[in-house]
Amino acid sequence: MNIRRATPTDAAAWDNYVAQHAEATPYHKFGWGIACEQAYQQSMHYLLAEDTNGNLIGVLPAIDFKRPLKAGHLVALPFCDTGFALADSQDIKTALLSHLNEQSDYRDLRQEPADTNTLSPGQKVILRLPLPDSSEALLSQFKSKLRSQIRKAEKNGLTMKMADNFTQHKALLGDFYDVYKQNMRQLASPVHSRRWFERILANYDDGARVCVVYTGDLAIGAGIVLINGQMAAIPWASTLSQHNRLAPNMLLYWSLLANVTDNGQRMFDFGRSSFGEGTYKFKTQWGAVPYALHWHDGATPELAAAVETGPPGTVRQLAETIWPRLPLGLTVSMGSAIRRYISL
């Protein structure tokens, strides 16, 4: 077995391996690393394992993550929830992981649904929904209350636009980013740069969906879904809170769920939530079930389960008070300048 750094010429073989691996997520695709380099100048450190015949038998995507005034360290993977190794066997996976050190961040995921009786309040989990053969079958399996909420958005006159290739993505990106940046200011969270989304969509192309929800001509909800094989994941979804009474989030999620179901995906990853809290309840109403995240954080390796680290409580509270009051343009320029150095 030979383990080496992947190069751009390995991209097609890498993506073919990832597309066929049962545990792979959309974040494992080669394009995620390319976007990290193109948008944020964070260098790829993608490792692959080959057998004696040169066949690909395992991959480990990682980024040599750099921050100002700090030594770089490997993160598998930044800007998303997971980034674990994929391999034909546990021995190959172990060999790939031996190339990480104690300072590396490694974001693993238990592959079986969690027993909710074993989860602690606030513990970070991924929520996933198995998808049937058609959107019609998916709609029929929802509870009547959920179906009525979807219809509420339609009765309120909301409409949506969907893009499924890069040419179409570019037409909706402005509206997506307008909703996203307003929502992130309200959440007191620094935004990704617009270039980050441009590079993600360019590298994923027809493996991405952009959906925007409108009231009249005004964009009030937006999301991006990424696809790999039979799995779809939604890393970014936003709505404008002043319009939430119109239920744009219901139309947004239903439109994306229906699209990927009819496209042949059989699992939908709703992303990370804290067990028992608001976003967790929103996702479980669709039928999603939790999978436990297990992260090794190089700064705090003793953590047994995934938690979100950040500034001390007082600093965070101050930011949450001040940030939403700042001019939108300032939050975008400041946020996009520092977001490249925040690995989550």
UniProtKB/TrEMBL annotation:
InterPro entries in the cross-refs: Acyl_CoA_acyltransferase, BioF2-like_GNAT_dom, FEMABX, PG_Glycine_Bridge_Synth
GO biological process, one term: peptidoglycan biosynthetic process
Family according to the record: Belongs to the FemABX family.
GO MF terms held by the record: aminoacyltransferase activity
Organism field: Alteromonas alba
Name the UniProt record assigns to this protein: BioF2-like acetyltransferase domain-containing protein
Top-level taxon: Bacteria
Keyword tRNA-binding belongs to the record: no
Domain BioF2-like acetyltransferase intervals: 141-281
Swiss-Prot/TrEMBL keywords: Acyltransferase, Cell shape, Cell wall biogenesis/degradation, Peptidoglycan synthesis, Transferase
